[in-house]
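Re: beginner question about structure tokens

> Can someone show what the tokenized structure looks like for a real chain? I only ever see the sequence side.

Sure, here's an example I had lying around. Input first:
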Amino acid sequence: MSRSNPKVKKPSRKTILQIVTGSIAAYKSPDLIKGMKADGIRVICVMTESAHEFVTRTVLRTVSGETVYSEMFPKDAPFGVLHTSLADLPDLVLVAPATANFIAKLATGISDDLASCICLATRKPILIVPAMNDGMYLHPITQKNIAQLKALGYYFLDPVEGELACGRVGVGHIATDVNIRAEVQDILQKKARRK
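And the corresponding structure tokens:
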């Protein structure tokens, strides 16, 4: 008599929409993307205009294997309304690195580019990973903006003390890839348990 093997449901592949903003830490994005892909995650990137100063679209496309978006109305967009289509697509929106400017835009509801429109339109969890000068990070306005977003349910992975682009050592250095990936997994697991 043969025993039938129960079918094990394989977990569906998760999709992360990573928003890359104009922090010097953007140059680390390719390694983070590679790590998340090794974790079995599909990563689609959206770049702010200033992010192009620190990492190229070609590099992010190469490491992710996906189209990289930055324009609000690209001619070759595969979606009807790009920002709402991208807002609905992922299991999690990851803003890494997040500048003080982008955090302020989110806290005040400013949606003047593709990345900020996606964050306003999505109902998926948003994880923000700040990276900036220590003076900017510790400024009361930035701290107020962070507290306001946390109160609304945004997730944050705080920066660490480290060498900053200005040459000082201070709090504002982006969290390690290992910690970002662990936080991503933790949020995805919490989301799965709530279903």
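Each token stands for a local structural state, so reading them left to right follows the chain. The two ends are 38 Å apart (CA to CA).
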